[in-house]
């Protein structure tokens, strides 16, 4: 794709990312995902490594199901906006409800795979605690927990790719054609570099905002210390999470808008 075409779809995706209705729709859903993350972080606080690992990745995979359904809905709205079609959010939601629920189930295999990795990780932690020989076993088998954590990170990256590549194919199925895995594989094989570049471009606003907000949160945590009680810490995370979600809302809308644009450009 030429640079001019990339700039055109980038600008159009941003243009439709700052509507009040979309903000009112996306913000509470991001808050819901944020509450899930805060809750899991509170459980993991001062917990064992096994629990901490679970509570680090599990909310990501649980939130992916919600975001998959949200992405399909946003892409259907974006299609109507770009085509200047008459749009009713309630009507789009009612006609797409079964599809949204079905799409959210795509995340179930990922969650199951991660839970299996988590169980295996726990087994290696138990082996390490065997009296006498446990430390020796732990040294020789240290590669296994490393591979498990690496696999969890790969699953997280795969989840992000799933949100970008699958949602437009499902969201535009009614107006275009049904999503087929074979067609998706053919498109990826034919335009692999372009697909990867589009994914990276879609992630730029999210990564920039998350990096900036995380830096601000770290500095706040250093300069504005609160009570070390777990309830106080969880409440602090919750109230910091709210502006996180507010600033991320247009970036998330842009991500799915750009996913739809990318699909339309590279589907052939």
Cα-atom Rg, whole angstroms? 21 Å
Q: Helix and strand string, N-terminal first? A: HHHHHHHHHH
What average pLDDT do the residues reach? 86
Low-confidence stretches: none
Helical proportion? over 70%
- Topology, number of strands: 0
- Count of distinct structural domains: 1
DSSP strand content: under 5%
Strand pairing plus helix content: what structural class? mainly alpha
- Count of helical regions: 10
Measured between the Cα atoms of the first and last residue, the distance is 12 Å
Sheet with the most strands? Answer: none
Shape: globular
Question: Any overview of this molecule?
Answer:
84% of the residues lie in helices and 0% in strands. It has 268 residues and is mainly alpha-helical. The chain has one domain (3-266). It starts with a helix and ends with a helix. The mean pLDDT is 86.
Q: What descriptive keywords fit this protein?
A:
268 residues, mainly alpha, 10 helices, 84% helix, globular
Topology, pairings included?
Layout: H1 3-15, H2 20-44, H3 49-82, H4 89-104, H5 108-128, H6 134-140, H7 143-171, H8 181-190, H9 192-223, H10 230-266
Helix pairs in contact: 1-10, 2-3, 2-10, 3-4, 3-5, 3-7, 3-10, 5-6, 5-7, 7-10, 9-10
Offer a concise description of the structure.
With 268 residues, the chain is mostly helical. The chain has 10 helices and no strands.
